[in-house]
Structure formats: C-alpha cells, structure tokens
Amino acid sequence: MGKKAQKMKSVTKSKTKAHKQKVKSHKKNKISKPKYRTKQRSESQDKYKKPEAPLTDYLAHKSNYIAVRFIFECGIKLGLKHITICSAAVYFHKFYKHVDANTYDNYSIASATLYLASKVHDETARLRDLINVCYHTLHRDAAPLRLAEDYWNFRDSIVHAEMLIMRILQFDTTFDHPHNYFLHYIQTLRPVFYSKHGKDIIVFKKAYDFLHDFYHSSDILQYKAQHIAIACIELAIKVYGIPSQIIDYEIQPWYQALVEDLDKDTLWKAMAAIMDTYDLELTD
C-alpha cells in the first residue's frame, strides 16, 4: 500500500506541474496577442497622423509679430491663463508704441511683460520658472541653465526690463479686453445662427481664432474692445457665409443692436486690420 500511495503522489505531482506549465504558456499567449494588436494599431495611426508644425527659431527673427508669438508659447508652457498672456501682449505693444523698436531686445521685453502680466492678474509665476522656459524657448537645444553667470544676466535683464516697462506705461496696467464682451455677444447671437449641423459653433470658434490672432498686431490698441469683438464675429460670418433669416442688413445691421456707436466704416476698418495681421509674418 505504501508503494501505491507513493506512485499516486508522484503522478499527481507530475500532473499538477504539467497543468501549471500549460496555464503559464496560455497566459503568455494571451498577453502577447494584445501587445501585437496594439502595436499594429499604433503603426496604422502613425500613418494618418497629422504632421507637426515646425518649431519657430526665434533668434532668427526680430519682428514684434514673432516676439508676441514667443509670449504666447512661453505663457502656455508656464500654464498661465489666456487673458494673462493677452495682457502681456498688450503691454508689449504699448511699450513699443513709445520707444524705438531697435533700442531694446524684444525677447527680453517679451519675457518681462509675461512676468508683469502674471503679477497683475494675481497669477504670479516663479521668476526661475519663467527664466528657464523663456531661455529654452529661445535656445531649444541648449543644456539646462545653471545658476551661473548666464542665469543671473538673464534674470537681471528681465527685472530691469519690468521696471522700465512700468515707467513707460506710467504704471497704468489696465486694459479693456474684447473677451469681456465677446462671450456675451456669442450667447446673444447663438439662437440667431443656430444650426442642427453645428455650423454656428464653427463660426464662433473661427471668430475666437481671429480675436486670438489680432493680439499679434499693435492695431489692437486703436479700436474699442466692443468693436473688436463685433469685428471678429462679423468677419467669421463673412468667411463661412452663413445666412440668417432673422437678420436684415438693409433695415438695421445686427451689431447696432448690441453696440450703438459702431458704424459700417469703423467695422470694416477693424475687419481689415484683423486680416492685415496675417500679412505681418510674411513681411518679417
């Protein structure tokens, strides 16, 4: 009986070992198949992936248009709000409205306006983070900036530029942004241009793109905030050509119901200024 029991134990052990090996091999096969499938999916997705836009070499450009693009890129990297970045662009345009464009380095001024705008909007960015982001946006392939002479020189340039900007602006950092009126106008017009196919959303997104891009031009200082907001919406309506049965331009333009002091000539001048913004990059 003892020999039979030992034989039974050895048989059961061999069976359990074989079963365990089968389970392991089955698990391996299960894990390997999804990996292969996901790899195939990622390869197919890469084929139809949109090409990324090339990074701007800011040191190769000295125009204020590209400098404002630098402000937006650094502001996004720092996680600042959009209105804060727009304020920095306004301070930049106001500064160069009173000084010669060739006197000061526009990227030092741009970095300083970001730092100033973050303070004005109670969104203070750490100066060291600002320096690192701005430096590596200008020098994309450079090594990390150490606490050495280059760091302290860049830090001093930003601090001194901030004080200079405040004096040039006469310590007036207020600005009436078109964003304050844009959303109100959009909510008012939404029922007028309502579309089951979502075309009204496309129009309003394009209008916001026009508003965002107009901050690259110093002409944004020449028009009222309400007029700029209306001009962006009207330009988007013209671009997509979406008609509305409610609006009749011969009786009264729709925008005069929202802004009484806006006439047709002022509106077309503002729309032309927005469109001229896209020619600034070509003239660099």
From TrEMBL:
InterPro entries: Cyclin-like_dom, Cyclin-like_sf, Cyclin-Q_first_cyclin_box, Cyclin-Q_second_cyclin_box, Cyclin/Ssn8, Cyclin_N. It comes from the Eukaryota. The keyword Repressor does not apply. Residues 40-49 have a biased composition (Basic and acidic residues). Residues 1-39 have a biased composition (Basic residues). GO terms for biological process: regulation of transcription by RNA polymerase II. SMART domains: CYCLIN (SM00385). Residues 69-167, 180-260 form the Cyclin-like domain. GO terms for molecular function: cyclin-dependent protein serine/threonine kinase regulator activity. CDD domains: CYCLIN_CCNM_CCNQ_rpt1, CYCLIN_CCNM_CCNQ_rpt2. Keywords: Cyclin. Residues 1-49 are annotated as: Disordered. Pfam families: Cyclin_N (PF00134). Belongs to the cyclin family. Cyclin-like FAM58 subfamily. This is Cyclin-Q. It comes from Aphis glycines. The lineage of its organism: Eukaryota, Metazoa, Ecdysozoa, Arthropoda, Hexapoda.
